[in-house]
# Entry
Amino acid sequence: MTTALAEKGLAPAPAAAPAADRRGKRGRGLDDGVPRRQIYLPLALYLLFTLIPFYWMLLFALRPAGSTSLVPWPMTGEHFAKVWNERSFGTFFQNSMIVGVSSLVMTTVVALAGGYALARFDFRIKKGFMLALLASQFIPGALMLVPLFEIFKNLQMINSLGSVVIAETVFQLPLSMILISGFIRNVPVSLEEQAWVDGCGRFRAFRAVVLPLLRPGLIAVGSFAFVHSWNHFLFALMFLSSQDKQTIPVGLNTLIGADSVDLGALAAGGVIAAVPVVIVFAFIQKWLITGFSAGAVKG
# Structure
């Protein structure tokens, strides 16, 4: 009966959902019935807690010396000019960029070769080697300062940016190799085998077939290596003695005096140190998330 009426267009229209039900659906953010306010409120509090230190740093960097205003107005660039010109932050920035980019390249290249070997080859000590890589992550870098210092001293590399680059690369390689080996395992071996059948050697097949698929993983590993090298303080402090070879973390430490601290200059230096990292993550955020999630699927 109802079907016949519906075919003739005489069936009554379905009753509209109650207004309370519609409001309830709009007020729920997930399918399991969690209200939106229970999601957004903790996120807003966390965001506020995260951004307050950055705002405080920008406030001291942009407001004039001696001002107590909570708003950086009128703005001034005197603190940036001071640290860049008088405190040699231009040189520190250049040195940090050399260390960061060099560590990125060396870590990515060596970890790519080692990760491919771990992912594609079986050898007798493979499990023990993987266990050693994982165990090395529990060793603090401070414990290796003395032997590293002796090694670089014998190699006449003290007060050279190369010593910091090598130290950073060595300490970042274990985790980078583990991550890249996970990325390579996600690439089917059959793709390489098809390239071998077509006449490609192993290296050419890897370069033409596997390497393009590893772009998210390489970006993730490279960005991690760059940021770690950019922010690391200990190696640069121990292996670099002259001011013209120091990096930004060591340069920031020189702004803290025994009796007083120039908060404006220190905040301006902190902004200069943070800008490259923010820019890197702003441009590679999508690749970074994709890369780490891909590497976590298989291990």
Notes: The chain has 14 helices and no strands.
